[in-house]
Amino acid sequence: MVEKNAVGNRIFSIFLYLFLSILAFVCLYPMLHVLFGSFSDPRLLTKHTGLLFHPLGRTLEGYRIVFHNPNIWTGYGNTLFYVIAGTITRTLMTMLGGYVLMQKDFMPRRFLMIFFVFTMYFGGGLIPDYLLITRLHLLNTRWAIIIPSLIGTWNMIILRTAFAQVPPSLEESARLDGAGDVTILFRIVLPAAKASVAVIVMYYAVGEWNSWFAAAIYLPAKRNLYPLQLFLREILITYSRGGNETGIVNTGADADAIRALIEDVVRYCTICVATIPILCIYPFAQRYFVKGVMMGSIKE
């Protein structure tokens, strides 16, 4: 019986590893395809059919076109500002909200919890938001990108549940020693729930890095405040339409033919420029993901 179980376990393990390998290939190959395509010669890439396992011709023409746009570096600087400032402020406000809602002796916490959850399902819409930003004189300012999204309700609920996992005896001992709420939050609660906080920080950072719609709405007259994603979107739209408004397209008798050939390469390069920086952060934060999400989703 033991030998049969051992053979069955080996067979199951083989099929499990095979299935996971296929699943990993299906998930990773699209990224590799885009990466290889960004370094490929446009003429060879256009003629190629099927899977792509290595660059064709190896050229940096697509990246030259993308980085030739002077707005790219401006967008990088703005995006870094939005990611750093937005992540810090949103994480701080989310931690404060989660700490307040986990206090059992705070009477309005049930009402506030219902109020916050209500905002997850119902919103005023784009036009009221735009009018509010205009009336607050935040239009065409950096604050229009940061302030309206200071708290993510779902993330605050995760932190509230994670903070509730901290033993009450620790907080009681700290209060007996004269510690206030600020000291308890930053010296006791946060260190005990650092995995959940790290996950929330990563969620906010990725969201800020990929954000472009708010800038398109709230910064109509301030191109110097545009994030990187919005400039990359303009490059894709302009290049696919065959325009040369950004000055990144070659001129000459065969300009249309060259533009048609290199369009896919530019698209691949744009995707790489937008995603590779944030992907480099994931390996350092991955170990916090499972622990942090589980800690913030299960309450004993």
Write the topology of this structure.
Layout: H1 2-38, H2 42-47, H3 61-68, H4 71-101, H5 109-121, H6 126-135, H7 143-146, H8 153-164, H9 168-176, H10 181-192, H11 194-210, H12 213-218, H13 228-240, H14 255-279, H15 282-297
Helix pairs in contact: 1-14, 3-14, 4-8, 4-11, 4-13, 8-15, 11-15, 13-14
From N to C, what is the helix and strand string?
A: HHHHHHHHHHHHHHH
In CATH, what is the homologous superfamily of the domain at 71-221 and 285-297? Answer: MetI-like
Shape descriptor reads flat
- Report the C-alpha radius of gyration, rounded: 25 Å
* CATH class value of the domain at 71-221 and 285-297: Mainly Alpha
- Residue runs with pLDDT of under 50 for 5 or more positions: 243-254, 296-300
The CATH topology of the domain at 71-221 and 285-297 is MetI-like fold
The CATH architecture assignment of the domain at 71-221 and 285-297 turns out to be Orthogonal Bundle
Q: Note the main sheet.
A: none
The helix-and-strand class reads mainly alpha
Q: Give me the number of helical elements.
A: 15
What proportion of the residues form beta strands (DSSP E)?
under 5%
- Give the integer mean of the pLDDT values: 79
- Distance between the ends: 39 Å
Helix-residue proportion:
over 70%
